[in-house]
Amino acid sequence: MVLNRLLGRLRLVFALTETSGVVRRYFSLQVFDGAMVGIGLVFGFYISGLHGYDSALRAVVSILIGVAISGYTGAFISERAEQLRRIKSLEQATLREMGKTFVAAAGVHATIIVALVNSLSAVMAILVVSSPYLAASASKAPLEQGLFSSLLVCLALLFLSGTAVGRTAGISALKTALQMAGAGLLAAILIMIVETIL
């Protein structure tokens, strides 16, 4: 019952602020970016010789903090400006002050939701992708096993994200999924090449 009311309120907020598409795009983009950052971290750890669990964990946590703050702040400022522009446009069209209306409040709520989605999507993706490598490092398992597992998780996450993007956009889900997964695989290959050269 409570969940239904919450979902209904969210749908109303998205309808009033026209942000459902924004949330979907931010989620997909940040999952993609987060997965790329995660696999870059893991390959960087392995190739550079940073094999200690404590050191790797500290590096991941530092990246997560930076990504979380950056993702939230950037999206909040951008979406807040967009919502203020929308409210001003409505005020001009209706010739009335809307600062204390539900429409204005919905704009504030939408801004926070968009910022949280933009921030937490990337954080989640980095955590999911880096966890297998961190687990292997913590358990003293072969790091190659953790590296391969992280790569598989990254590709699976990108494939699922691409599938969702394709279905939402009404285009080929398989094609979009393969494109995103292919980008992840290409990134891993390029990282190995660059790290080997350096």
Short description:
By secondary structure, this protein is mostly helical. It contains 6 helices and no strands.
Keywords summarizing the entry:
elongated, 6 helices, 0% strand, 198 residues, mainly alpha, single chain
Kindly describe this structure.
This protein is an all-alpha fold. It has one domain. The chain is 89% helix and 0% strand. It contains 6 helices and no strands. α3 packs antiparallel against α4 and α4 packs antiparallel against α5. The longest helix is centred in the middle third of the chain and has 42 residues. The N and C termini lie far apart (58 Å). The model has no long low-confidence stretch (mean pLDDT 89).
SSE topology sketch:
Layout: H1 2-17, H2 20-48, H3 53-94, H4 102-138, H5 143-169, H6 173-197
Helix pairs in contact: 1-4, 2-4, 2-5, 2-6, 3-4, 4-5, 5-6
Helix count, per DSSP?
Answer: 6
Q: Please, how many domains?
A: 1
Oligomer: single chain
Question: Helix fraction?
Answer: over 70%
Radius of gyration of CA atoms, rounded to a whole number: 20 Å
Uncertain runs are none
Largest pleated sheet: none
Broad shape: elongated
Round the mean pLDDT to the nearest integer and report it: 89
The percent range for strand residues is under 5%
Helices and strands, in N-to-C order? HHHHHH
Number of strands: 0
Determine the structural class based on helices, strands and strand pairing. Answer: mainly alpha
Distance between the termini: 58 Å
